[in-house]
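Hi R.,

As promised on Friday, here is the backbone we talked about, encoded as structure tokens. Could you run it through your design pipeline when you get a chance and send me back a sequence?
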């Protein structure tokens, strides 16, 4: 298998605020440049490993921006098709592989919303965020020792955060998601959004304040 071919492999399904989040799992350090090189050399197992290492992260980002499990699954597949077609453009000297794939994912999400606006003139960047609250969430990192009550409260908190995020302005929302839910640092976010680090910090601060204000209104719902 050669990622430079036209046929992709089979599609594969400051202190920081501790929001209920899609935080990076603690995993052994992965040599992404080496993994990419193996992919480019035609190593099918390397591609499978690459997808497995980043699939949950990409899906979580797509879901947070669409609030639709169906759209998130489709977009995640689209992301990896795009990754496969563009592996040769990855340059470790310019940034990490997770930052590169996050940039690619974000650009694909922007294109998705632009197409949505063209297809439905009344839609905006917020399209999809107001869907039913029972849509599947990215699988949380749940402590197996938690009680049913603790688990229920966590789920309710996640729902409240998701609903509040839907009401945060788009440019502030994406900064908060990348920082507090995707656990990226300021430099990485600046690279993904193509804005100065100072602007990143400002958006995160304003976004957190807006999100906190919205959550304050509903805090009485969680006992």
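Update: got your reply. Pasting your designed sequence below so it's all in one thread:
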């Amino acid at each position: 298998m050669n990622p430079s071919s036209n046929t992709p492999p089979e599609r594969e399904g400051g202190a920081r605020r501790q929001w209920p989040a899609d935080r990076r799992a603690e995993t052994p350090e992965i040599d992404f440049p080496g993994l990419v090189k193996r992919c480019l050399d035609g190593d099918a197992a390397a591609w499978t490993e690459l997808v497995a290492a980043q699939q949950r992260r990409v899906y979580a980002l797509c879901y947070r921006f669409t609030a639709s499990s169906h759209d998130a699954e489709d977009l995640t597949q689209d992301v990896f098709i795009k990754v496969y077609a563009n592996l040769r453009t990855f340059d470790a000297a310019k940034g990490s592989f997770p930052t590169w794939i996050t940039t690619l994912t974000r650009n694909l999400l922007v294109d998705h919303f632009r197409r949505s606006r063209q297809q439905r003139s009344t839609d905006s960047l917020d399209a999809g965020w107001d869907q039913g609250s029972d849509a599947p969430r990215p699988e949380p990192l749940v402590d197996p020792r938690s009680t049913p009550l603790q688990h229920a409260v966590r789920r309710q908190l996640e729902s409240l955060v998701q609903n509040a995020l839907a009401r945060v302005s788009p440019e502030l929302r994406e900064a908060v998601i990348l920082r507090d839910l995707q656990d990226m640092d300021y430099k990485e976010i600046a690279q993904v959004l193509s804005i100065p680090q100072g602007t990143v910090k400002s958006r995160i601060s304003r976004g957190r304040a807006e999100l906190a204000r919205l959550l304050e209104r509903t805090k009485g719902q969680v006992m």
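One thing I noticed while checking it: DSSP finds eight helices and no strands in the chain.

Thanks again,
M.
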